[in-house]
Structures are given as C-alpha cells and as structure tokens.
Design a protein that fits this description.
By secondary structure, this protein is of the alpha/beta class. It folds into two domains: 199 residues, Vaccinia Virus protein VP39 (Rossmann fold, 3-Layer(aba) Sandwich), CATH 3.40.50; 42 residues, no CATH class. It has seven helices and nine strands. The strands form two sheets. A seven-stranded mixed beta sheet has the order 3-2-1-4-5-7-6, sandwiched between helices. Strands 8-9 form a two-stranded antiparallel sheet. The chain is globular. 36% of the residues are buried. It catalyses: a 2'-deoxycytidine in DNA + S-adenosyl-L-methionine = a 5-methyl-2'-deoxycytidine in DNA + S-adenosyl-L-homocysteine + H(+). Its EC number is 2.1.1.37. Belongs to the class I-like SAM-binding methyltransferase superfamily. C5-methyltransferase family. Keywords: Methyltransferase, Restriction system, S-adenosyl-L-methionine, Transferase.
C-alpha cells in the first residue's frame, strides 16, 4: 500500500519532493510564508495550511504514515550568537514552535516523525532543550534516533550540517544491532568534481568551501550593479537557504520504507 506523508514548516517542499520520488502520497503541507506556500500549492496540489499555531490536525489522525517538519532554527542557530544573546532555544518565539509540532504529532499520531534543525539544536542550553524534545516524544510513545548529517553526504558541494531526528512508534521494531541511520547515505558514490574552480570530494567532507565575495544571499556587488536587486530573486534564495536537502530526506525515506515493509 502506498505510504502517506504530511509536512509541517514545509518551506519549498523538500520533503514533498522526496516523498514524490518514493511514490508516496503527499496529504498536506503547512507553511506560513506566502511565497513558499504559493509554490507548494501550485507544485504539489495537497491540502494547504498556513499557520501551524491555529491549525487543528485531528482530521488526519491515523491517516499519516510519515510526518515531517523542519521547525524554525533562529533561536538555536550559531549565527545568532552575539555577545551571548540569541540562544533562547525552545524559549524563543521561532524555535519554540516545536511545541506546536509536538501538538500536531499528538493529534495525528503518525507511525514515523522526521524533524530537522541546525546541528546546534543538540547543544542549546547545554543540551537541555534537545532532552526536552526527546522526552516529549517519549511521552507520546515514540522512540527516537538522530544524526548530524551534511548536504555533502548526498553529493552536494557544501557541508550544511543539520540534525535529523527520526522518531518511530513503540510498535515498530528495528533489527537488533542496526540503528536507524546505519544504512542511510551508504550508497553515495565517492567522486570528485570541479565546482567554482575548486576540486571537491563528493560524499565526504573537505576543509573549506569556495569563497564568495557577496552581499545578501550571495549576490556579488558587481552582480547587483549589473542586474539590480529583485525581490523575487531574494525570495527564491531565502527559500532555498531555509530548505532541507531533498536528497537527504530521500535517503531517510528509503530507510523508512525498508524498515516498515
């Protein structure tokens, strides 16, 4: 039977795309950004929600196999460490939206949950916030595993470290001695390619990334002089910057499919 997928904090639909690659059915997405939501509605045609804080998900109870959500990272990101401020974690208005994802999980009760955030989410407030996330999932009857993964693990020419947390209901039993992530991204071919004049090892880490003489969103001063600034262009790059890596989601989804059959 075809698996079903629902998405929270959907962005431009990286999980939806990976779900489509799997042949699964995308049931709904939830995204407050107007630009991203307009794209989702045109591209995926699933039920559309705007604001997770006001949405009742009870109608999806028992109908969703996999629920995903890249909840906001602003209060957990190292980018906001300024003089010791900015690390509010789950107490912040943005990263604290985890508790609405938790509510949605409780209302929907999917078999699997995949949550994504910056790698630093495991260290905010000396790890206490991440412990709260794990404890909240455990209280709903979910086991959880997590791993810091990189876009380069799926072949992208950048590191882009993110924490991927996979939770599964107590009724799901993994093979003994085989953690969930043991076979994720093991089939990536190690190759080398040229990117922006720099030789990169795909599938493994490298010392640095090609430098970018940039202004906002990576556009050079010369580019802005020649082509001007475009709000649409900035919207697109902002959306890409917030997006999960669909190839990594696809690897996680393949593991779920293998274990859940």
């Amino acid at each position: 039977m075809k698996k079903t997928h629902g998405s929270l904090f959907s962005g431009i639909g990286a999980p939806e795309l990976a779900s489509e690659w799997m042949g699964w059915e995308n049931l709904f997405h939830c995204e407050i950004n107007d630009f991203c939501r307009s794209f989702l509605e045109k591209r995926f045609k699933s039920t559309s929600y705007a604001d997770i804080t006001t949405t009742d998900f009870n109608i999806w109870r028992g109908r969703v196999d996999i629920l995903t959500g890249g909840f906001p990272c602003q209060d957990a990101s190292k980018a906001k460490q300024t003089g010791g401020r900015g690390q509010l974690g789950l107490e912040g208005h943005r990263t604290g939206l985890w508790w609405h994802m938790y509510r949605a999980i409780d209302e929907i009760r999917p078999r699997w949950v995949v949550a994504e955030n910056v790698a630093n989410i495991t260290r905010v407030n000396d790890g206490r916030d991440f412990a709260k996330i794990l404890h909240s999932l455990s209280g709903l009857g979910y086991n959880a595993e997590w791993k810091i993964m990189y876009a380069s693990d799926a072949g992208a020419p950048q590191r882009r470290a993110r924490c991927y947390l996979v939770a599964y209901s107590n009724g799901i039993r993994l093979p003994a001695g085989k953690p969930f992530f043991s076979n994720v991204c093991q089939e990536i071919i190690k190759e080398r390619r040229m990117f922006a004049g720099t030789s990169l090892s795909v599938g493994v880490s490298w010392a640095g990334q090609p430098s970018v003489c940039s202004v906002g969103y990576g556009f050079s001063n010369r580019s802005s002089e020649l082509y001007g600034k475009s709000r649409l262009k900035e919207e697109v790059f902002h959306a890409y910057g917030n997006s999960m890596c669909p190839q990594l989601m696809h690897e996680i989804f393949k593991r779920i499919e293998y274990l859940d059959n």
